[in-house]
Amino acid sequence: xxxxxxxxxxxxxxxxxxxxxxxxxxxxxxxxxxxxxxxxxxxxxxxxxxxxxxxxxxxxxxxxxxxxxxxxxxxxxxxxxxxxxxxxxxxxxxxxxxxxxxxxxxxxxxxxxxxxxxxxxxxxxxxxxxxxxxxxxxxxxxxxxxxxxxxxxxxxxxxxxxxxxxxxxxxxxxxxxxxxxxxxxxxxxxxxxxxxxxxxxxxxxx
Length: 206
What we know:
By secondary structure, the protein is of the alpha/beta class.
């Protein structure tokens, strides 16, 4: 059982130190991932930034992710994508989610521009389930000419772990459960993180 996000970040940071990464950039997924990313960045003495994608869901089922989109329109499509992509409202869903990602990036970091060419990236989140948002970000990172990408994640289900391993140089994690219902079940404390908390951390890296 992980105590909280701070402990998760510290433990992941300790594991990442052993990887001997050269000038890595920590890309954390808000909001919870920023708490972990901050702890990792302190351990590694490096820069913290954020990256965001939004789940794409059928109009009538807003909790059911069939994919995800980044700020520039990069997509991840799950196996269920084609079941819904012909819906007359589907284009509106894509446009709305893309605009929401842009808005949040501009709120957190004032720009949607990145310079990641030749850099070692550590993508961080506080846990994932199916991984739609992470897969979309990895698809986006594949176009950024990075040196390599590692995933630092506190909790990742075994099936998602197997699916994501081929897409990154390394997966650094604390828990790979075969039985999974939610990320929060692996934390003693898993309180919601506010926008203000995220901004307070990010301002330290301006």
